[in-house]
Amino acid sequence: MKKLVLLTSLAFAAIIGHAQTAVDIAKVLEFKNANYNAGQTITGKAVEYTVEIKNISKDTVTLITAHAGCGCTVPNFTPNTKFGPGQVTKVNIVFNGSATGPYTKVTDITFDNGLTQRVQLTGEGVATLAPPPATTEATSVTPPKPKTDKN
């Protein structure tokens, strides 16, 4: 029984110790365009955006891979890219535009030390984009000057 309690305690301590050593990605990397809203897009026309990733830590980070959630989205990047403190790397993501209606496309970007960031593209596929609202120029009419006795 004592051995069981000891083993359970050691296992619990190991789990707690591991959880405390997990790295918070926000303390290592800063993301620009991690949640990109493309607005209305034409169905069938590709949508492309770039996620910029800045290393805000003191150590070199390696971008290992990026995987899209479906075959209609492709992340373009250089695998195993190392970038040092203050440096920026980019992942260009292309969605083929096959959706009609609201869409959400995700890509998981994986780094060394077990770090992963999910980025997201949202938008709405439409057959054609609505034309911008017509603008009318307001014309101001200057009232005629009143006649005076001097005229």
Short descriptors:
151 residues; 4-stranded antiparallel β-sheet; 5-stranded mixed β-sheet; 9 strands
Account of the protein in words:
This protein has 151 residues and is mainly beta. It has a domain of 105 residues: Immunoglobulin-like (Sandwich), CATH 2.60.40. The protein has 1 helix and 9 strands. A 5-stranded mixed sheet has the order 2-9-8-4-6, with no helix packed on it. A 4-stranded antiparallel sheet has the order 1-3-7-5, with no helix packed on it. Strand 8 and strand 9 form a beta hairpin. The protein is elongated and about 90 Å long. The termini are far apart.
CATH first level of the domain at 22-126: which class? Mainly Beta
CATH architecture of the domain at 22-126: Sandwich
Helix content: 10-25%
Shape: elongated
* Nearest-integer average pLDDT: 85
The main sheet orders its strands as 2-9-8-4-6
Largest sheet: 5 strands, mixed
CATH superfamily of the domain at 22-126: Immunoglobulins
Taken in chain order, the helices and strands follow as HEEEEEEEEE
Tally of strands: 9
Q: Structural class of the helices, strands and pairings? A: mainly beta
Strand content: 35-45%
What ranges have pLDDT less than 50 throughout 5 or more consecutive residues? 13-20
What gap, in angstroms, lies between the N and C termini?
118 Å
In angstroms, what is the radius of gyration? 28 Å
Tally the helices: 1
